[in-house]
Amino acid sequence: MPEIFPPSFTPAPPALTVSAEEAGQKIMQLLARRLGLARNMLHRWIRTGQVRRNGARVKAFDRVETGDSIRVPPFALQILAALEQDAGRLRPARFGRETRNRPLPDIVAELPGLLVLNKPAGLPVQPGSGHTDSVAGRLAVHFAHLPFKPTPAHRLDKGSSGLLLVATSYKRLRALHEAFAQHELKKMYLAWVEGVWAEDGPCMLRDLLAKTGRPGQEKVRSGQGREALCEVVCLYRKERRSLLSVNLLTGRTHQIRAQLSTRGHPVCGDVKYGAHPHRDGLFLHAFSVELPDGEYFACQPPWSGEYALDA
Prior knowledge:
- By secondary structure, the chain is α+β, with helices and mostly antiparallel strands.
- Helices cover 19% and strands 27% of the residues.
- The chain has six helices and 15 strands.
- It has helices at 27-35, 39-47, 74-85, 135-142, 170-181, 255-262; strands at 15-17, 52-53, 56-57, 69-71, 106-111, 114-119, 151-152, 161-167, 186-194, 203-212, 219-222, 226-237, 241-248, 284-290, 296-298.
- The strands form two sheets. Strands 5, 6, 7, 8, 9, 10, 11, 12, 13, 14 and 15 form an eleven-stranded mixed beta sheet that branches.
- A hairpin with a 2-residue loop joins strand 5 (106-111) and strand 6 (114-119).
- The radius of gyration is 24 Å and the shape is elongated.
- The chain starts with 14 loop residues before the first strand and ends in a 13-residue tail after the last strand.
């Protein structure tokens, strides 16, 4: 039988082609997102020259461009192929069984590089201790076929509902992170709080907030830490509660909940910060967001009964 290849033939090493959605990432980020392998392993491949970009050696923090050919060790793509055969077989440490076959939150808008989701209360954005189902997990399962998996650009408390920005390209993800860091996004929340809010006009809340407690049981307290700013306007008063709009100027963990609680007005249902329990949970909703280029999105809260906005 004749030889298929001459004795000197060496099969070309496998390669990944950088898509437009992935362009701009550091090569380390690209490999971590594409292959889902430990970063110390990826560092070793790069350091020993097993990873090449367009035939040349690279450093971990070199950035890739659309169309770049990234050579990786042969077994790396075998791992990737195995994962792509069954999108449900994801790493259990990040995405558990309860994430499979779960629907995505409602899509409010879909733009180049961006999904705007309406996150329901009770669903965390990221997996963590005590829960494995999450928005990030559902995105990873639903879009397992894409080279760049849609990525939440910010966090929203598990108990809160409302708008969540999800980047579908690295360029958009980086732009959103920069906009958040420069306070160029305008985010407005609605909250029912306990008690009658006394101020009639806009009220600026300024505190220093810091997290305390063990992982998974953290709580935010005022008096030290990082500066937290928000502007509050009372929209409606009832006998024992008030509806507030909150213009969030900084994005600290549990910021709105902690700042309102320290003033004797915890968010209704927020047991963690001193409110009475409610069967429907937390009445805090990310109502609207405006991006630096003027793109504006809004969605109504899901509240019903006496908490409905038209009640």
